[in-house]
Design goal:
- The structure is a single chain.
- By secondary structure, this protein is mainly alpha-helical.
- The relative contact order is 0.19.
- The chain is globular and about 50 Å long.
- The N and C termini lie far apart (40 Å).
- It is built from twelve helices and no strands.
- 71% of the residues lie in helices and 0% in strands.
- Keywords: Oxidoreductase.
- It comes from Billgrantia zhangzhouensis.
Length: 243
């Protein structure tokens, strides 16, 4: 029978729940990091990614609304995160669209939900459902720890390739540089909220499970991008991955 873990034990368990399911392992990510995608492939990524991360402030707003008033630091973090997404400097989605346009697509295509894949639609729907229905600490575990905390490790592998292989400018890849820094901070604050407020065995176990599911969802989403847009041009054998 599960027992209440101390903070160190729980932190390790949360990290283990995500380990092995990083989106870095998806063939789309492998192809990107090795410079084997075309700009058209990257444009399809941007068109999909917009509909996953574009509503992130909305997801957080639902969590904020469900968070008890005495969770003061957690509410402050959620509000600050929303502010950074939408108002603190350039809107993050505008930076993503700037990159998308550099890849050859348009703002109109990026903003059109008809251009996202069914798997992306599923990830977006899952994020909304978790934010609206789950206990706020469990929702933070899902969206901030399970999803957002992965971003720096993913973009650190992909961003150098964008400059060195594809020749994008610093302005065109600002979206990635920004999230390497900001999501490392957000991810750590998310961990601290979960470690502090998941104070029962049930809450700890729910947080662990939803972190695992969140990591699986991002891996599934990224893998689907390969099969939907890249597989016909770049077989797995060219990525040294088994078919």
């Amino acid at each position: 029978m599960a027992q209440l873990m101390n903070r160190d034990e729980f932190r390790t368990a949360l990290e283990e729940a995500i380990k092995g399911k990083s989106a870095n392992k998806a063939p789309f990510s492998v192809a990107w990091a090795s410079g084997k995608l075309s700009r058209d492939h990257l444009a399809r990524w941007a068109e999909n990614h917009y509909h996953y991360v574009g509503p992130f402030a909305d997801y957080l707003a639902y969590i904020y609304a469900n968070t008890p008033e005495n969770y003061t630091e957690a509410k402050d973090f959620l509000l600050q995160n929303m502010y950074e997404e939408e108002l603190g400097g350039d809107r993050h989605t505008d930076l993503l669209i700037r990159f998308a346009e550099a890849c050859g697509t348009t703002r109109e295509r990026v903003e059109n939900p008809d251009n996202m894949s069914p798997t992306t639609r599923g990830l977006q729907s899952w994020c909304y459902a978790v934010a609206m229905r789950e206990h706020p600490v469990v929702a933070v575990a899902a969206l901030v720890v399970g999803l957002e905390s992965q971003v720096p490790s993913i973009y650190r592998k992909q961003t150098p390739t964008l400059r060195e292989k594809y020749g994008f400018t610093d302005e065109e890849v600002e979206f990635f540089d920004l999230h390497i820094v900001s999501d490392e901070i957000h991810g750590e604050r998310g961990y601290q909220i979960v470690l502090e407020h998941a104070d029962t065995v049930e809450l700890q176990q729910r947080c662990l499970k939803i972190c695992e599911i969140g990591a699986q969802m991002r891996l599934l989403y990224t893998t689907a991008l390969y099969y939907d847009y890249v597989a016909g041009d770049l077989p797995l054998t060219e990525l040294d991955m088994a078919a």
